[in-house]
Amino acid sequence: MATTLETTAPPLTTAGGTPVSVVHVTAEFFPYARTGGLAEAVNGLVHHQRAAGLQVLAILPLYRTVRDVEPDLEPVGSPFLVPMGDRTEEARVFRAAGAGSRGPQVFFIEHLDYFNRPGIYGENAVDYPDNARRFAFFAAAALTALPRLVSGPVLLHAHDWHTALVPVYLRATPLGERLPASTTVLSVHNPGYQGHFPPETMPDTGLPWEIYNWRQLEWYGKMNFLKGGIVFTDFVTTVSPTQANELRTPGGGFGLHDNFLWLGDRLVGVLNGIDQREWDPATDTQITANYSSAHLEGKRRCKAALQRSFGLPQRRKTPVFGMTGRLVTQKGLDLILGAQDLLTSDAQFVFLGSGEQRYEQALVELATSAPNRIGVQLDFTDRLEHRLMAGADIFLMPSLYEPCGLTQMRSQRYAAPPIVRSVGGLRDTVDDGVTGFWFAPYTAAAFSEAAFRALDCYADPARWQAMMRRGMARDFSWERSVGEYLDVYRRALIHSGAR
Fold first, then answer.
1. Over the stretch 95-124, which tens digit does the pLDDT of each residue have?
2. Domain topology for 21-273+479-496
3. Which CATH superfamily is domain 297-476 in?
4. Domain coordinates of the chain in residue numbers?
């Protein structure tokens, strides 16, 4: 029996007025499974869509981490078989107990061999060798399970390469025959990861060989999950307007710019949001002292606490640069490490996060060589992230590329103007010289120049406080994004011919 989602006056309907359910198929969803911003972005969108009255649910794999967060899971029906070409595999569906009364319902696909592992995508920075098979199965299982989860017309919203095969299975295999009234939207959160696999992977996915061609799944002699999703879906979104434009260029499309160009107006950039109730220094319970744009005094106490926790001397007038996130090439660590004039200036630096060993080692060595100016914490926690945002004077986000980014939004809310490269969502959310600082060339010199502009502004308290207050006043709410996604959904329904 299908689980129905109760709401009144549904904001999304077919042309004939039938309510449409939105089903998010995702590899990550906070707090159950998270490696980066994808989990938070999908969680924020789903919860705010539910609050806006949409009939919405989410489906993700039943990883080991899910049971760590939600040990009390309820089975939904009996086990079922998932067709994967010439073979079938067994799956089960569970849901979080008690979910759905106010928030969205969240469902989990169980396959012990594929998902009951220590990692989500791999372990010790090495991908699982069967990731193609794991996530192909998940996409097919989500479609197979759908009739027992929801009834009536459905809009399937897939996220990144891990679920990009959802529209492919729907349009190119018999699975689609069971879901004739379905529309698909694919969100590209990080185009740098596309799901490239050797052609011999095709039989493992159960997809027909005839779609392994240069127009559909083949990409330079490999199978490309993301390309297949782009070709077969009704609409594609990415996570900022600037990123949508960059995807259409050879330099920003990561080898798929022709496919993004082919989409025309079916590629739309919708800026992610943040939960402004959770990220509010006036009410945040995880920081040392609360503060607001009208009363900034508490930020001084937060700064002193941050300096203490990172083992730095408490110097009220010394500017503190902060950075939190994955320590990977994308985040611009090479620029920071190359800006020796900045690193040796009369400033302090705190780094929070883990990632590639070479960056972890380089930062630890810096902290060892300058313990009074540089602090590093490799064990990331949500509490430490909140405290870093509250205590830092200036936030660093010099990304090589950044489809959207969330931390630069949070830093502005917490009165820590960010230094960003003018790409993707960073350009869309930071105003140069108004709420933060831009630089363009991906060079240490350009980054350093922007950082010293920030220091010049910091040295003028009146200018600096005005910048802090402008950033705190910015609206980065999900409510704005939900309305834009609703417009995309309506256009996708028209494109798919939903009646």
1. 987 665 567 999 999 999 999 999 999 998
2. Rossmann fold (3.40.50)
3. Glycogen Phosphorylase B; (3.40.50.2000)
4. 21-273+479-496, 297-476
Tokens encoding 54: 């949409």
CA separation, residue 335 to residues 136, 181, 325, 474 (Å): 37, 49, 15, 28
Q: Which two tokens stand for residue 451?
A: 């950082």
What would the mean pLDDT of 186-200 be, rounded to a whole number? Answer: 96
Strands 222-224 and 196-197: antiparallel
Q: Token pair of 104, please?
A: 């969205």
* pLDDT at 2 > cutoff 50: no
The residue among 24, 32, 38 whose CA lies nearest residue 166 is 24
Q: Which two tokens stand for residue 284?
A: 């945040």
- ∠411-415-421 over CA atoms, to 5°? 45
Residue 404: closest CA among 160, 124, 64, 165: 160
Contact 356, 126 (CB under 8 A): no
Q: Pairing mode, if any, of strands 348-352 and 87-96? A: unpaired
* pTM for the full predicted model: 0.89
Other beta carbons within 10 angstroms of residue 383's beta carbon come to: 11
Q: Residue type at 35?
A: T
Question: Given this chain, do its domains 21-273+479-496 and 297-476 carry the same CATH topology?
Answer: yes
Instruction: Write b or e for each residue in 144-179: b if 16 or more Cβ atoms lie within 10 A of its Cβ, otherwise e.
Output: bbbebbbeebbbbbbbbbbbbbbbbbbbbbebbeeb
List Cα–Cα distances, 58 to 54, 90, 106, 109, 120, in angstroms.
12, 20, 5, 11, 17
What pLDDT score was predicted for residue 11? 86
Tokens encoding 141: 């299982």
